[in-house]
Automatic annotation (TrEMBL):
Descriptive protein name: 21082_t:CDS:1
Domain of life (superkingdom): Eukaryota
UniProt lineage: Eukaryota, Fungi, Fungi incertae sedis, Mucoromycota, Glomeromycotina
Provenance organism: Racocetra persica
Amino acid sequence: MEKAELNALDSYFTIEDNQVCLNKGVITDSDGMLYDNGECTDVQLPSKLMDNFGGILCLPDGVFFLGDRDYGSRLLIRNCYLQLLDLTKKDSKEGGPARSGYAITGTPGIGKTYFGLFILFYIRCIYHKATVIWNDQNICYGFSPEGNVQKGDVNQFEEALENPENFYIADALMMKKYPAYKILLTSPKVERFNEAVKWPGFTKYFMPVWEREEIITLWTLQYKNKKNNEGEELTFELLGALLTKWGPIPRSVLLKWDDKSYQQDYDS
């Protein structure tokens, strides 16, 4: 792109190494409309950027999602992430099917947890007066509007969960009903979300599987030239072989590429 094509965005981004870097607090919806600290700017990203979208949420070097090195510092923003958020925002309005919350489910290994991490970032940008409670199998975190973070048992955050203006994100857990807006990230196992979808105003959405091009983009960004302790490399040829075997499932072709026990599960 020519620099002149981006002049209207000058207040919202910088260019570094030929990358368009949105400023802190600036986020886009699936149409490319920019929001600055929750307020619509009426400025859109050019369609050629959105049509070939390769957005990445980058944390500072040495900073990891939820403080966990295994989650890394970068997250590929799939188009379906933005589309799902637009859909849930529309459905969460008064009288809508998701007015009290929703579950996100789909094929195991496609990155529902990472979508949850993006939701966490999205809420902080759009609803910056809300407290967000994140609960997974390891621990519970409370993110306050002032920027403070507490961790502990979910019972410590009962007061925040009683406020319908706040958000409760549960990852791979049986969810308890609270007045806070509820988001459940779950496998397709019916027992995980069956009770929740009976609640008034609570529905479920299915995350689509990855496109092959999305997998290749993620490999290029985070796994290219990656080697294991034995010096084996996740080459493009090996990635192709894993895609042929498993299909476009990030856990199977990227995260577990060198886990021999996991890969042998395919044969059995």
